[in-house]
Amino acid sequence: MQARLARLAGFAESDVLRNRLKRAAPLLARLPLDQANIDQPEWAALLDAVTVQETRMFRAAPQLAAFRTQVLPLLARRGALALVSAGCATGEEAWTLAILGTGAGVPWQVEGLDLCRPALQAAMAARYRLGPPDALREVTAEDRALLEVAGDWFSPAPALRAAVAFRRANLLDAALPDRAADAILCRNVLIYMTEEGRVAVLRRLAAALRPGGALLLGPTDRPPKGLGLVPWSRDLVGIWRRDMADG
User: Fold this and answer.
1) Helix H or strand E segment including 208
2) Are residues 194 and 235 in the same domain?
3) Residue 178 in domain
4) 28-42: per-residue pLDDT in tens?
5) pTM to 2 decimals?
6) For 189-221, what is each residue's pLDDT tens digit?
7) Contact yes or no for 226/205 (Cβ under 8 A)
8) How many whole angstroms separate alpha carbon 148 and alpha carbon 91?
9) CATH number assigned to the domain comprising residue 238
10) Is residue 145 one of the residues assigned to a domain?
11) What is the number of alpha carbons within 13 Å of residue 75 lying toward its C-beta?
């Protein structure tokens, strides 16, 4: 079963996956093993049950601060920005990108992609608990001005919503058109995948970037050679640039 899931969604065969499959035992009994597809209802339900959805607003804030000050202004010189959260979970990362986009000085749009249907529903609803722990602990006072807080909940301000969209997609497939994005965030996703799956996803993400575009990865994620990705600079950990010569 784990091998079938690995082929379908690139998941690594790990203790995390094994434990989640144990909890999803009632779903396993109903699986049509000859119809493994992310859109097949029983398989889709299993994928909903085993995917990891840990995220929050401005998670890994130092990397995002560097992206905001050193990368985003250069991308904005080319005009309107297309920003992508790949593996967006419940959407906080996509809404974080929206806040960053508002300060870029050019039109922007954000697309969030994920495999898990309940997570995408939460992302579109965009209504989150404040905690504990404090869900906004990495958000500055200035950025909180673009969030609406009421009681124990917060939501992105209406000004952000028109330019943010969410879509169900398998990152192993061609989820994005070639050269469509100026920046893609894909953090804490690849660590749950097989090596083959990681390389396949990185290849697709690199192809989806416009030449000179930025790919933000987790600190332990390092793209293999041959994908046209180079470190943005020596000082920016986890931020990669699609080589201009690759375009």
Assistant:
1) helix 195-208
2) yes
3) yes
4) 777 777 777 777 777
5) 0.87
6) 888 788 888 999 999 999 999 999 999 999 889
7) no
8) 16
9) 3.40.50.150
10) yes
11) 30
